Each structure stands twice: as C-alpha cells, then as structure tokens.
Amino acid sequence: MEFLLDYGLFLAKIVTVVVAVIAILVIAKAVGGKSGAAKGELEITNLTEQHKHTVEQLEHHLHDEAFIKARDKAEKKQDKEKNKTREKEIKKASKEGDLDSKREPHLFVLDFKGSIDAKEVASLREEVTAILAVAREGDEVLLRLESGGGMVHGYGLASSQLDRLKAAKLPLTISVDKVAASGGYMMACIADKIVSAPFAIVGSIGVIAQLPNFNKVLKKYDIEYEQLTAGEYKRTLTMFGENTDKAREKFKQELEETHGLFKDFIRERRPALELDKVATGEHWFGTQAHELGLVDEIKTSDDLVVEACKEKTVLAIHYVEKKKLTSKLAGLAGEAADNVLMKLIDRGQRPIV
C-alpha cells in the first residue's frame, strides 16, 4: 500500500513538471509572437546544383575511379578558364555601368497546390513579390500547378498574382502534372505557355454551387427557422429556409453570369480557343486538351526543369508561413472539422469554379 502511495506521488510530480514545461513554452511562444517577428520566410532550393549532385552520384557508380579523376580534372580546368573569362566580362560591364546584363539567367520555380478556398494565394503573393524584386531580363518563371478549382474570389486573386508577372514581362510557363481544372485552369490560362502531362486533367470551364436543405427536417420536428434580410436578393437559396422558384432562378442567373465572366477571362488570354466547344464544364486528359488547344505542349514539369538546368540557374522558391504553437496543439482534426462546416455554410452563396 505504501509502495502504491509513493508511486502515485511520483507520477503526480512527473505530470506537474510536464504541465509546467508546456505552460512555459506556451507563454514564451505568446510573448515571442507579440514581438513582431516575421510571419514566414522564403525557402530557396538550387535545383541546378541538386540535379548536378544527383548526376555526380550516379556517375560514381557508372565509372571507375581513374575515369572520375580524369573527368574532374578536365572539368576544373574548364571551369577555371570559364571563370577567368567571366571575371573579365563582369569588370568590363561594371566600368560601362551595365552589370545587370552579365548576370546569368534564372528560372524561378513556384508550386501551387490549390485548395477549395485557394488559401495558398497568401504564399504565392510573397513568392511573386520576391521574384519581381530581383528578376532581370532573361529570367523566366515556371509554376507547377495542381488544383481542381474552388471559390471564384480565391482563384481570381491567385490569377491576379500571376498577372503581376506578366505585367513585368517575365515569361511564365505553367506545368500541369496532375490536374488544373476549373479555377485551376483559370490560373493556367494566364501563362505564355501551358504544358501538361499526357494524363493530367485539364479544362472543366464551368461553374457549380450546391448545398443541402434541411427545411423539411425542421418542419417535421416543429422547428421554426427565421431569416431576416434587407434587400430582395440579399439571400437566395438557404440551407434551413424554404427555397422558392424565384430564388432558384436568381441563383441560376448568378451562376450563368459567373460562367460568362469565366469565359471572357479565358477568351482574352487564349483567343484561339473554340470556347463554345470547350466551355461546357467537361474536362479532358492532357493529350485531348492539347488537340483542343487548351494546352500548348505535352511534357512533365520534370522535363522542363532538367532542360532548364543545362542553360540557367534554376531556383525553387517557397514561402513558408510560421504556424502558431496553439494551432499545432489544437490538432488538425478539429481544425479540419471547423473548416468543413464553415465552407459548407459559406458555399451555399459562393459559386465554385
């Protein structure tokens, strides 16, 4: 009995210490968060160096030591001569006040894996801003896009971020390895060139909105639902009220108007497309999309990156937002449930592209 009491006291001490440590960490995080620290930071990966390292690793298994030594010696000699020539060119350009012209061209690689509300646009905004701050003539941008679409305003803003690159006259290629449908295709058509994998899903130029209606269930249990509005069409279809034909007609009209804006947006950026043929809400695989003119070339993003590594310095740019400790401790399950509920309520009046 005495042993159990001692053991219980020992466990209580351990729990107290753990709780105290967690409390200190939470307080420290809260205080640190108020100090105005950066919300996030850029992660930059040199894909050219990464590719070179991969090739070197493989070659060590393909060739004997004598061959590797001879090749490395020849490459060092070649690099030395190249660096000397480049130093002379840079010095000359510096004297002439034209140093930027001697900077090696870069390919900036971005990734956008879009959700329903396109919340990833927050990171895209930071990435585009960073690129515009340093880009020079000869530089290009590759966006690896994956999205099945979502809320109109979210994907409209994402498209506007890509338009910033176009306004700066930076060549933009968008690569679709898996899917760029609906709002995803809205983003893709901003590009100077759209490249697709053979079986990527492309298109779906249409608009949809859907929501459940629980009015009959409420009536069954004698539950009254009241909704007060000012303005005839402040609310059309609802989840809990009794929907009318007039409300349905108005909502359908809004969908048609959104579809019209969507088509105008694509027509302006890809005028060669036969919109009546492709703006039906259907989607196609990459090879079919190429035949229809929805994409310009059949390749994967890997092909584009490897090709660019031969001529340019290829940098992958990724803006990472710092997550609050409280968000991590709360757990992803609860957050996901809240998001689903809020999106369900919100989606009733927000078209999806």
- Number of distinct beta strands: 9
Instruction: Assign the CATH architecture of the largest domain.
Output: Alpha-Beta Complex
Helix and strand run = HEHHEHEHEHEEHHHEHEHEHH
Helix-and-strand structural type: alpha/beta
Question: Helical segment tally?
Answer: 13
CATH class designation of the largest domain? Alpha Beta
Distance between the termini: 68 Å
Q: How many structural domains does the protein architecture include?
A: 2
Unreliable residue runs? none
* Helix content range: 40-55%
Q: If you average the pLDDT, what whole number results? A: 84
Largest sheet: 9 strands, mixed
Question: Which range does the strand content fall in?
Answer: 15-25%
CATH topology name of the largest domain: 2-enoyl-CoA Hydratase, Chain A, domain 1
Global geometry: extended
The gyration radius over C-alpha positions equals 28 Å
Please identify which CATH superfamily of the largest domain we are dealing with.
2-enoyl-CoA Hydratase, Chain A, domain 1
Key attributes of the depicted protein:
13 helices; membrane; alpha/beta; Peptidase_S49; 353 residues; protease; transmembrane; nine-stranded mixed beta sheet; 2-enoyl-CoA Hydratase, Chain A, domain 1; cell membrane
